[in-house]
Amino acid sequence: xxxxxxxxxxxxSRGIPEATVARLPLYLRALTALSERSVPTVSxxxxxxxxxxxxxxxxxDFSYLGSxxxxxxxxxxxxxxxxxxxxxxxxQDWPVVIVGIGNLGAALANYGGFASRGFRVAALIDADxxxxxxxxAGIAVxxxxxxxxxxxxxxxxxxxxxxxxxAAQQVCERLVAAGVTSILNFAPTVLSVPDGVDVRKxxxxxxxxxxxxxxxxxxxEEAAQDAAQAGAxxxxxxxxxxxxxxxxxxxxxxxxxxxxxxAAATAPVTSADVRDNQGPDGDVPAVMPA
Amino acid sequence: xxxxxxxxxxxxSRGIPEATVARLPLYLRALTALSERSVPTVSxxxxxxxxxxxxxxxxxDFSYLGSxxxxxxxxxxxxxxxxxxxxxxxxQDWPVVIVGIGNLGAALANYGGFASRGFRVAALIDADxxxxxxxxAGIAVxxxxxxxxxxxxxxxxxxxxxxxxxAAQQVCERLVAAGVTSILNFAPTVLSVPDGVDVRKxxxxxxxxxxxxxxxxxxxEEAAQDAAQAGAxxxxxxxxxxxxxxxxxxxxxxxxxxxxxxAAATAPVTSADVRDNQGPDGDVPAVMPA
DNA sequence: ATGCCTTTGTGAACGCGTGCACAAAGATGG
DNA sequence: CCATCTTTGTGCACGCGTTCACAAAGGCAT
Lengths: 290, 290
Description:
2 copies of one chain form a homodimer.
Chain A (H helix, E strand, L loop, with lengths): L17 H19 L4 E2 L1 H8 L3 H11 L3 E2 L3 E3 H12 L5 E6 L3 H8 L8 E8 L8 E2 L2 E5 L3 H8 L3 E4 L3 H14 L3 E4 L12 E4 L2 H26 L41 H5 L15
Parallel strand pairs in A: 4-5, 4-8, 5-7, 8-9, 9-10
Antiparallel strand pairs in A: 1-3, 2-3, 6-7
Chain A binds a DNA duplex through α1, α3 and β2.
């Protein structure tokens, strides 16, 4: 069972820490803006502020790329833009396919940020025959049947999945089998891929839940403070509370009844099960970035 | 001017590590799926597989919530669903506003994952007067002028920004001033917010760039291996050959003219097929999709 | 009851990422 | 050519996050 987990590689790809790689696009964006304003050089302090990071961190990040700065002066904007672009592999053109042209897929297809950074939408693919031929963002949608040939003919190595959760794993497997080695997944599902394939996921639902957690925490602390200070501030509008019924007591081994014991031991819920784990709810894809 | 950084201070919110919080939604999704299949209990091993993580990590994550498992048996699915939901603050209803109803904003509005997880779209807001009143996903779009009153009237504390990059910061400030304390940003910009406000960003462009980096690395290693196996001669680059010679000489402060110094950065990639990145300049920062 | 077997919960080691603080490098002015 | 000032590049320490490995806990069969 080569249930390749997500990305579990040498973490440090050829010397450049993953955390640094994730920030390079941020620096690149800030630098591009400076470049357009014809700013010749920037100090680590200025650039760090623009990118929203610590200047020491920025300098260390750049140190992994080499010594591209000039002490006492800063970094040459144009030169740095080129170096980072090269490091990120943006000096070449990356054909990309988007699978699943629903609301989200269409939004992605229309996203202007593709072309401007070295990415080119090579094809839009959807399983709905009715969509075939329809132009979206100026590109005719093609049917899933042609997925393999499209990828092969265009040398596509990056695929974007914007399908419903239920179709994601299958689409993923076809993409990988056809030669795709990097996938950006917008479907709310955990994708299983073989080693060597990179998967990055973007999930609106998860992001919101994380925010909700912090929001709840903030509300709690605030309440505690208010209580302590005895109503210094006006009581915030009570949020509509939809309280879930508490399953009451924790299941203390009790459930003796339905105990045919579906045998948890023997069937370690593996890939087969995981596969159908799809959307708990009819979850439609989700999220998207900008 | 409180150039508030993102969120990075309390790191460990009330004992639960941030990394753990980020995984809870993942567990919750897997558990919900099991719940719908009426599976009574799961072992950490099974659940970890379904969520795509290490079982030890999962157990440690749960240990921060309390001892909800039964040794020798595993975790009660229903009970755990409740506990995690409660911890994430999903037992209450969170009204959310989406600002910027373009392609992306509309896609988000249509996303089914909202309601299913305790989130409710309270309002759709757009700056275009022509959009006002138009129904999107069954909700009438409202004009930006009403932003403050909408937030106040509905007690909204979570806002989603799906506007073009240029408008994001301004919208953000209005949201925060109106009472929003958590923001999910889809615009490709770094938002500055005061302390106490959480910001999470989703950026397609960045994700793709990270994938491109790894893709390029893979291509490089592959080429190296091929070369080694093929007799270790001729650095035959595989696919989109990378291997670009350091083009522009680094700006060694040389030019006496501190002026604009167009810099040779545009660097015509001397070597073969490596297409030069699109325009050394036309790189428009991007207008959000939408 | 008793012993076996499964699975949790966690102590401890390890590695990555972050941020401080500073010496070295280089520009600039005299 | 030398002094001074600015900014880079990085050694070092600290803390979070991950993973291993195992003792304790509890079910289950005998």
